[in-house]
Amino acid sequence: MPIEVLQVQKKMEVNLDCISRPLSNIYAKYARVVCRHPLPFIFVPVIVSLCLGSGFQQIKFFTNIEYLSTPKNAESKRNRDYIDDVYNIKNNGMLVNRLSMPTSFGRVIISGSQQQNILQSEEFMEVIRVHETILDISVVNNGLENTFRNMCLSWMGDCATNSILEVYDYDATKVPFVTINYPFTIHPTGKVFGIATELGDVTFVKETDIVKSAKYIRLSYYLKVSEISELWEEKFLKAMEGFDSEVIRISRDTSTALSDEFLISTFSIIPLIPIAFLLIVSFSLISSATMDWVVNKPILTLLGVVSAVLGGLAANGLLLYFEVTFTAICALTPIIIMSIGIDDMYILIASWRKTNVRSSVEDRLSETLSEAALSITITSLTDFIAFAVGCTSVFPGVSFFCIYNAVSILFVYVYVLTFFLSCMVITGRREASNRHCITCKKVVPGDVAHSSCYRILCAGGTYNTTSSDSSHIIMVFFRDYFGPLMGKSWMKIAALLVYAMYIGFSTWGVTQLKKGLDFRDIVLKDSYVIPFQDIEQNSFQTYGPLIQIVFTEEIEYWHPDVINYIMELHNDLETSKYGLNSEYFTTDSWIRSFKKYLSITGQAPTNGTIFLNILQNQFLVENQFKHFELDLVFNEDRTRIIS
Question: What is the pTM of this model?
Answer without folding.
Answer: 0.78
